Amino acid sequence: MRRLVAAPNLALATLWADQLAAAGVPTSVQRAWTGSIAGEIPVDQALPEVWVMDDERHAEALHLLEELRNPPWRHWVCRSCREHVDGPFEQCWNCGTPQPALGE
User: Fold this and answer.
1) Span 9-27, pLDDT tens digits
2) Bridge partner list, 91
C-alpha cells in the first residue's frame, strides 16, 4: 500500500478514490476523520489521504488522478442553435442538444 495524494477535504478524497477504483485501481482513504483534530496537530497532518493498494500501480494511479483533476477543456459550437459552449459540458446550455462526437 502506498500513499498517492493528500486531499484538501474528505469529499474530494472519497471522489478520487471512487473514480480510481472504477478505473480498476484499488484504493483506500486514510485519515478520513482526522480533520476534527486539526489545530491540535498540524493541519497538513490532518488531511485525508488516498492510498493505492498495489504499490506497482502507483504510477498508473498518479496518471489517472492527473487526468481526473485536469479534464480537457473543450470548446464547441452547437449544431442546432450555433451557441458557443465552453468547458466540460456535453450538452448545449441554451437548447439541450448533445455535444457532437469527435469527428462529426
Assistant:
1) 999 999 999 999 999 999 9
2) 98
